[in-house]
Design goal:
CATH class of the largest domain: Mainly Beta
Helix content: under 10%
Number of strands: 9
Shape: elongated
Strand content: 35-45%
CATH topology of the largest domain: Pdz3 Domain
Oligomer: single chain
CATH architecture of the largest domain: Roll
Radius of gyration: 26 Å
Strand order of the largest sheet: 4-5-6-8-9
Length: 137
């Protein structure tokens, strides 16, 4: 890797630049490396993740369809948190999901951030905290 080192003297004196070669496995003294963002990277979204589940929707006689967990990925954070097939999503992050698309959006977010869900299982309502993880789509 090559770079430039600037030596500063008096505030009004010209800046001296010196070529510096940095080699792997060797110490280079007197060099400060600053990594600057390139144009456009500031708008990139943070790492995103989700909850490793397959969702389904029921609408039989309901004004608003219910979102149901069809499958939970093995060895996932969702499985470790206690989410199970057949659970009906009542709330995600304090909001009732209006559709399967809405539920997917609410389950998505930054990797390792938790999402709190309320599910109905066998007539009982249970609250679960699930860590989002990198999910293959």
């Amino acid at each position: 890797m090559e770079g430039e080192a600037c030596r500063w003297g008096h505030p009004r004196a010209p800046v001296e630049r010196e070529r510096v070669r940095v080699r792997a496995g060797r110490t280079t003294e007197g060099v400060k490396i600053v990594l600057a963002r390139s144009e456009g990277t500031g708008s990139e979204p943070p790492a995103t993740g989700g909850v490793a589940v397959t969702l389904g929707e029921t609408a039989a006689g309901l004004d608003v369809p219910e979102v149901v967990i069809v499958a939970v990925a093995e060895n996932s954070e969702a499985e470790r948190s206690g989410l199970a097939s057949g659970d009906v999503l009542i709330e995600i992050g304090g909001q009732r999901p209006r559709s399967i698309v809405d539920a997917r959006a609410r389950l998505s977010g930054s990797v390792h951030d938790d999402v709190v869900v309320k599910v109905r299982r066998d007539g009982r309502v249970t609250t679960l905290r699930i860590a989002r993880e990198q999910v293959r789509r």
